[in-house]
Amino acid sequence: MCGIVGLHLREPSLYPRLGELLTGMLCQVTERGPDSAGVAVYGDPRWSPPGHATVSLLPGTTTPDEVATALRTAVPDAAVVDAGQTLVVHAPVTVDALVAAVRTALPDLLVIGSGEEVAVLKGVGHPQLLAAEFGLVQAQGWQGVAHTRMATESAVTPAHCHPFSVGSDQCLVHNGSFANHATIRRELKAGGAVFDSDNDSEVGARFVAAQLAAGYDLEKSLKLLCERFDGFYTLLVSTKDSFAIVRDAIACKPAVVAETPEWVAMASEYRALAGLPGVEHARIFEPEPEEVYAWQR
User: Fold this and answer.
1) Which residues pair with 282 in a beta bridge?
2) pLDDT category, 221, cuts 50, 70, 90?
3) Which residue segment(s) compose the domain that 60 sits in?
4) Are 42 and 8 in contact (CB under 8 A)?
5) Do residue 81 and residue 177 come from a single domain?
6) Rounded to 5°, angle at Cα 43 from 265 and 56
């Protein structure tokens, strides 16, 4: 099953409502994935202030104060925001510098996202309760994606939740399964990729990240994924300037897109779009098989 929602705002006056709108969308697909959930929010000033790098962490039993203390020497201006099962760290340094400092000071914690614009939040539990735990309804920004999970390929833990964010400001959410993910995982490992889970969706995320790193744009990267991966899937991939959707060759996993001059939205079911402002005037369509739909900021 699993549920996907995504919202790309074109109208700046809607930025303060991103979290409210995304929460409403997420809560409409909870039945598709009741065991866990995750979100990625682009541009929220609490989590990703302008001029700051942001790193999202799964802390386990480590407290926010312990994270702040561990980072104090290397990154004295780091701030730690408690988002329940996720901690968000931001500081006025480069993304690479903050990631390196976190990995050095806190080697037992899992980095689940990093970038200049994105905060990634994940947790196990009912998606509606997790949205409240994250404080999602208060979020602001220009883009967000979310996922509700019904585990089929791997364990129910925060580390196995979507979105998978394995490149700076990049996120992937996935409904479906990849039949040949083990083969591609071995190929990516041979090229130096390090995996954080045995989830097949992480393989897709790392494949896309590798194509982007090689210089391809998001549309071409997803076309290459369609050529290489076998299985049934709907994918939504976001970056700091793009929002893209693709489905497998027979498009057996549900997806619907709505587009207006003010926003573009995608969801596994139409009911997740029904509460968006102006949806009655939207162009609404079902993505065609293996056709990449991409929008730029």
Assistant:
1) none
2) very high
3) 49-116
4) no
5) no
6) 105
